[in-house]
Design brief:
The complex is a heterodimer. In chain A, about 0% of the residues lie in helices and about 55% in strands. Chain A contains no helices and 11 strands. The mean pLDDT of chain A is about 90. By secondary structure, chain B is mainly β. Chain B has strands at about 5, 10-15, 20-25, 30-40, 40-50, 55, 65, 75-80, 85-95, 105, 110-114. The chains are: A mainly beta, B mainly beta. The interface of A and B includes residues 8, 30, 88 and 99 of A.
């Protein structure tokens, strides 16, 4: 079945790198996404990667995709207090009209 | 550019009351979605629509109804509210499949059922 799994919590010291991991089940997914939800707000697309790519870099963000293991990760370099949020991994199975979200990883920044 | 707008943002209901949440988008998106977000459960899809006049069930449709009479609006109805429907509700919209499929979210509607 369809399932996207990620750990629920991550604590990182300010200035360190954060790595949020995700596993997905549908190998037909064309796009894989990372969404960010700040307190009291809706989700916003942070970045996405096309399924034929292994890596995508965008400023402090690096997305790595391992299709063989169905594993997606988001690395945030030089983590700042403004990065404190819930990060959702998501996939779009080709056969579906829906986007499947994971439960979200709450990133907590330690001073 | 307003994007996706949800009304109301907060509502308190008594068990058995009915209400409608309104979602409006001004981006000419074909697809619209209603999600609920509960602690530890992530986002769960209630209903969605792939175009004006169409609706489909998501993961947790029971107790909810929807309508998409106009392309820009997607209504979520609770006919007889229950405490289990206490949640934060998010509406989202997107272009039809074939593009990146990015979802644009509203700010959420917090519903409490007593």
């Amino acid at each position: 079945g369809e399932d996207v799994e990620q750990s629920l919590f991550l604590s990182v010291r300010e200035g360190d790198s954060s790595v949020i991991n995700c596993t997905y089940t549908d190998s037909s997914s064309t796009y894989l996404y990372w969404y960010k939800q700040e307190p009291g707000a809706g989700l916003q697309l942070l970045t996405y990667i096309f399924s034929n790519m292994d890596m995508k870099q965008d400023q402090r963000l690096t997305v790595l995709l391992n299709k063989k293991d169905k594993h997606l990760s988001l690395r945030i370099a030089d983590t700042q207090t403004g990065d404190s949020a819930i990060y959702f991994c998501a996939e779009t199975p080709n056969r579906d009209d829906k986007i499947i979200f994971g439960k979200g990883t709450r990133l907590h920044i330690l001073p | 550019n307003a994007g996706v707008t949800q009304t109301p943002k907060f509502r308190v209901l008594k068990t058995g009351q009915s209400m409608t949440l309104l979602c409006a988008q001004d981006m000419n998106h074909e697809y619209m979605y209603w999600y609920r977000q509960d602690p530890g459960m992530g986002l769960r899809l209630i209903h969605y629509s792939v175009g004006e006049g169409t609706t489909a069930k998501g993961e947790v449709p029971d107790g909810y109804n929807v309508s998409r009479l106009k392309k820009q609006n997607f209504l979520l109805g609770l006919e007889s509210a229950a405490p289990s429907q206490t949640s934060v509700y998010f509406c989202a919209s997107s272009y039809a499949k074939g593009r990146t499929g990015e979802l644009f979210f509203g700010e959420g509607s917090r519903l409490t059922v007593l």
